[in-house]
């Protein structure tokens, strides 16, 4: 959050103060990581482990003009070997929070922010091939009528947090590294997921039926997160059906996206509102800025304060106020706005 706000020109007078505060936090995280903090099998995890620590450290150090940014960058690069084995995690090796998709997502953020490819082409191809092979094997084993599928702790999730949509999104983000036959498998899987739509939403896991019309309209599970896959599919293919699907996600979010679970970006109001900023960047339609502004205003109402659940992780980027601050900052610069650490425009 501190890094994100520091990058906004409107906060330029406080930029150095924010970055120094960010460095104090990231230095502490690096020390914990170097001491062996966290579980060994999450060393390559982006959102829940070591890869995220090294990636953010590199961003903060670079923003401060410190040559030390090369060290965490090197540590990050070394982690590609950790996620190379097909099943390096028992819980599921491919999803966004701890798996290969997250590691590729981190490399994408670093490429965007540093203006350089952090991983070699061989490393990228190796990880993409592992994701593809893992998905093929699982789909065959479970006799799926589509080519790629994955599970996390035994559940076949579809959403952005742990599911198929963000894994496919990362494969599309590295589309040029895929062989034509594998590109076709990805598109078949994207189209399969599009067919799982139920009243402009998606169930949290494969085969479920949405029983309530306002069930799970979240970034983590449901249309507000799956929208990013179809945005990426549209940007890569230019096919209008993917943009149309993304727009339907936004319409549902406008109708059902004011959530009681808090202000955050994982399953909160700010996470829903980010869809409107995404659609503004895709379409240039100013109505989406209006909608994002209305959601932002709702965060400060007595109705929201009275009806929202108490936060357990107040400062969390995804569950707490940090992600909300990122959203409010992006509302000031909608032409550059994007969901934190989850860009579709790279």
From TrEMBL:
Zn(2+) binds at residues 220, 266-267. It comes from Anas platyrhynchos platyrhynchos. One of its GO terms (molecular function) is metal ion binding. The keyword Zinc applies. Belongs to the LanC-like protein family. SMART domains: LANC_like. This is LanC-like protein 3. The gene is LANCL3. Gene3D superfamilies: 1.50.10.10. The chain crosses the membrane at residues 44-64. GO terms for biological process: carbohydrate metabolic process; peptide modification. Pfam families: LANC_like (PF05147). The keyword Transmembrane helix applies. GO terms for cellular component: plasma membrane. Keywords: Membrane, Metal-binding, Transmembrane, Transmembrane helix, Zinc. CDD domains: euk_LANCL.
């Amino acid at each position: 959050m501190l890094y994100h706000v520091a990058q906004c020109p409107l906060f330029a007078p406080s930029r150095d103060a924010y970055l120094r505060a960010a460095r104090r936090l990231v230095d502490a995280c690096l020390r914990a990581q170097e001491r062996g903090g966290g579980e060994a099998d999450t060393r390559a995890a982006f959102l829940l482990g070591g890869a995220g620590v090294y990636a953010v450290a590199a961003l903060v150090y670079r923003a401060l003009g410190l040559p030390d940014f090369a060290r965490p960058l090197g540590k990050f690069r070394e982690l590609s070997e950790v996620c190379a084995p097909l099943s390096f995690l028992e819980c599921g090796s491919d999803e966004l929070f701890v798996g290969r998709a997250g590691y590729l997502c981190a490399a994408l953020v670093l490429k965007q922010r540093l203006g350089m490819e952090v991983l070699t082409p061989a490393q990228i191809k190796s990880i993409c091939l592992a994701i593809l092979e893992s998905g093929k094997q699982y789909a065959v084993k479970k006799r799926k009528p589509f080519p790629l599928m994955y599970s996390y702790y035994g559940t076949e999730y579809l959403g952005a947090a742990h599911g198929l949509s963000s894994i496919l999104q990362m494969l599309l983000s590295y589309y040029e590294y895929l062989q034509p036959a594998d590109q076709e498998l990805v598109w078949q899987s994207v189209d399969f997921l599009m067919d799982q739509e139920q009243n402009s939403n998606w169930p949290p896991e494969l085969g479920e039926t949405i029983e309530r019309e306002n069930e799970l309209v979240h970034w983590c599970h449901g249309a507000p997160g799956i929208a990013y896959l179809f945005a990426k599919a549209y940007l890569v293919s230019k096919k209008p059906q993917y943009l149309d699907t993304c727009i339907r996600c936004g319409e549902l979010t406008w109708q059902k996206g004011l959530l009681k679970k808090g202000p955050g970006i994982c399953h909160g109001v700010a996470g829903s509102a980010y869809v409107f900023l995404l659609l503004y960047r895709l379409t240039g339609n100013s109505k989406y800025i209006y909608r994002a502004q209305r959601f932002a205003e709702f965060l400060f109402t007595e109705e929201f304060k009275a009806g929202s659940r108490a936060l357990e992780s107040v400062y969390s980027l995804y569950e707490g106020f940090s992600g909300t601050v990122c959203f409010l900052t992006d509302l000031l610069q909608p032409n550059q706005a994007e969901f934190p650490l989850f860009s579709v425009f790279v």
